[in-house]
């Protein structure tokens, strides 16, 4: 046995992330169904917030109505649970009153794009500094599985027994077209990418929209012959998407019907709304 | 061999929402525009199955909000179709400006309102804040104690709304979860009976009649606006007679007659509770308990809230010494709750009118128990004894 032992190789210790400091533990367990992707998004968001280094009291999280809108109930930030579809409008009021706050909106495809579609596009248009997370599971979960504006054509829901007939929105294209200056798509499957994307979205100054594809096994999965959450994640999130980087080396034919994943649009030039507002106020006051 | 096909369709155990969906199927409206909201969602969800099965001819539109749902119903009704929808709480609140358009344009739209509390704070359980808030919107409002009543009311609503003397929208209210999600055995009418009772609807001035062009909702300035409202006000007041007629005809055909109010043990009662919807059932149980002890207690349950049955109320409460009106909605810092306000005002001209107090109960689904009702009756007997009401209006149980 050799006595001159080599110096031990420095080992990276992986310390489990302590979520508890960001959670209202008395509000747990959460109400989300087994297999729902919302919990994965919540955890990624908390890790992203931690990485950005935000103080809890400097964050205000706003939501509307629906499963995704339950998120603020579980986090120990300033939180406001509002009306169906109206979260971006409440958030706009909060941001204008206190531009120092980091405003995060959690919403779903039904909440943001159907009943709140108008508020969503006009918030993007203003490019006010906030982060809007659209948990996109292609169904109204809370009311029991009706089709939503992101339900793919032909999918079965409780209100589309013969397959959905209406063409769905492309959430990211719409956000970009409406004027959001940071637009990204992530999934609850690519969980490390999700965390990175959320971090970048929070750090961006202007309206950031992140569409997060996740799964509703209880309604969407069950009605569309996807028997488990993991099967849904494989099929919709893994096989159904391709990263922006991978896509660079692929022809449109090779990409096929897959959705792009990653940061799709990042404009750091366009002026942010609160800054514009402050400048206008100064100008009007002749300063 | 006995023909049991009729009896098969006559009785069934259904939730309130299933019964409403079935009634909608039997009515087979031309257009149904909807948006989901708890606790009314399953009315529409089940109705959508009837659509998918081809059991109805209805054009079924799942729109992007309740605002759009009522807008689409207004468009459909103005075009000459029979339009229906269902909602609750915030959904009804989001329909607000449309409610006034529907009644102002004299469109006989039918809506199931599954009563639920209004935010904030968010609450999905029953109270009447939603429909009470809509009480001045010009809609006729029918309230339902049981699944049977809600089911029966929907057919009658169609007939009332579409009567030429009325031409106004009607909402049929039932209690969220308590009635909407409770299974009750009820007597059903057959599809043919339903069809025959509600009849076909032919709009008198449909927008799609291009030979006789019409304009609706046009600008009316101070020279005409008030006249429109006057006519509308007369129409809803006159609809009371139609509600009575339709209730009688329903009784003649199906054995369940409906009036404007319902009473229980009220005839010789010394004290009475006035209450809407499912809580009337709880009150009946309390009455049976107290009557067994020889106490003369009674119930008055308005079925119609708009137009308000003032005269019938006065008639029914003659001889009663003290009344408590229970409201499942507050009219914050009004003179008591909305029902209290109406009842007390109705009794003002009465000679020897009873003492009246008001209590707010059951907000956001808070239980209303037989013990609560008994306590109210005891308080009313104290009022009779002392001739004094300690607290005119109060919250009960909080």
What would you say about this model in short?
Chain A is of the alpha/beta class and 287 residues long.
Structural summary, described in words:
- The complex is a heterodimer of chains A (287) and B (398).
- Chain A is an alpha/beta fold and 287 residues long.
- Chain A has a single domain, classed as Rossmann fold.
- Chain A has 12 helices and 8 strands.
- Chain A has an 8-stranded mixed sheet with strand order 2-1-3-4-6-5-8-7, sandwiched between helices.
- Chain A is globular.
- The termini of chain A are far apart.
- The model of chain A has no long low-confidence stretch (mean pLDDT 95).
- Chain B folds into 2 domains: 245 residues, Rossmann fold (3-Layer(aba) Sandwich); 134 residues, Rossmann fold (3-Layer(aba) Sandwich), CATH 3.40.50.920.
- In chain B, helix 2 packs across helix 3, helix 8 packs across helix 10 and helix 11 crosses helix 14.
- The chains are: A alpha/beta (287), B alpha/beta (398).
- Chains A and B meet through loops of A and helix 3 of B.
Q: What amount of the residues of chain B lies in strands?
A: 15-25%
- The H-level CATH homologous superfamily of the largest domain in chain B, spelled out, is Thiamin diphosphate (ThDP)-binding fold, Pyr/PP domains
Biggest sheet architecture of chain A: 8 strands, mixed
Helix content of chain B: 40-55%
Strand order of the largest sheet of chain B: 3-2-4-5-7-6-12
